From TrEMBL:
The keyword Metal-binding does not apply. It comes from Pendulispora albinea. Belongs to the class-III pyridoxal-phosphate-dependent aminotransferase family. This is Aspartate aminotransferase family protein. Gene3D superfamilies: Aspartate Aminotransferase, domain 1 (3.90.1150.10), Type I PLP-dependent aspartate aminotransferase-like (Major domain) (3.40.640.10). It holds the Pfam family Aminotran_3. It comes from the Bacteria. PROSITE patterns: AA_TRANSFER_CLASS_3. Keywords: Aminotransferase, Pyridoxal phosphate, Transferase. Residues 99-115 have a biased composition (Low complexity).
Amino acid sequence: MTIERRQASVARGVATAHPIEVVRAEGARVWDANGKEYLDFIGGIGVVNVGHNHPRVVRAMRLQLERFTHVCFQVATYAPYVELAERLDALVSGARSQPLPSSRASSSQPLSSSRGAFSQPLPSPSSSRAAYKTLLLTTGAEAVENAVKIARAYTNRPAVIAFDGGFHGRTLLGMTLTATGSLYRQNFGPFAPEVYHAPFPHALHGVSTEAALRALEHLFATRVPRDRVAAFLVEPQLGEGGFVPAPPEFLKELRRLATAYGIVLVLDEIQTGFGRTGRMFAFQHFGIEPDLMTLAKSLGGGLPLSAVVGKAEIMDAPAPGGLGGTYSGNPLACAAALAVLDVFEEEGLLERSQALGAQLHAGLTGLQSRFPRVAEVRGLGCMLAIELSSEGESAVELTQRILDEARARGLLLLRCGPHKNAIRFLPPLNAMRDDIDRALAILEGAFQASLSA
């Protein structure tokens, strides 16, 4: 079997969460080599927000495949890149001007399932060309590295402040910026210079917004003065770090400090973007406006594609030739991304994300009431997690046992958090309500079996 062959041919450092071989995928389901069906609530780690093999995305890729697959945008311009840049510029501009949800953007509640601001058609490209610009790339890590380059070019400053729990990639700079777990760093140093970390608020673990902001001020006073800082880099809701939403007052204060001291505010929306939190972008929950935003994962509908979208004045800081990459903005991936945006509009996926998130949150809260080992249910929209507490047994071991039991019953889930004792839920945004109900039933059975083992 492929899994046995893998041991002899694939580097040991590439870990795989589940010992199965996927041979087919569609919508919210995958099938293994033995024909067993699974509900996939991992989605390639947040990549297939529109589901596996969406017909519109597949059709768009097929059409582009018959035209050309690669010329390199630094060699010659092609329409899919430019059209996608226009649409991303318009989306960010439109998202910036949308009203905030009235009451449910807290760190522990999903958004309401009622129709919101995005029930209207998405903005047209002509609405924002003067305000925002886009750089297309290949991976999330590449987007983060380029956002740092752009911020440094714009400010002529070297330092970057990232936050505990953040995950920003596996490249040298990405690893340096990441503060999710020592596993990602191992013995790969020395790391990139002029990167500093500050606490990210999480009340469950005793870090209040006030304490986090005091620590940031202490960092300014003792390690790096404000006028040396090019950028703040922060996830509005931690991804790999545990699906912890930032308190609104924390992000608002970062925005204030960035404006006051000429610091570029970079929001890493690689996992939170494209409807995952119930809004097109997570920053819409918080009443702030980023200077730069990194995007990837669900953008390409399964193909490698990422972007930096930001204010035109900042994006234009690097001189011609300073940005790019051989495969950046590959035309096949751009065609897929344009189809992904069409699916969002035509299928009302933002409203579906809100409704599915509310259904899932209610089910997880019910699970918490029946199983005291669930210490917290958290997240925004359809980006939710439960964290398990340790009570006489390692929460890490219990978490893994639950995941293994859920897989045996036909549900694929993944861990997250610095201690890997949280379970994350990333169903496709066009999953059915019955899929959520079935997943919750499987999860309850996995809890019962794992706690009695």
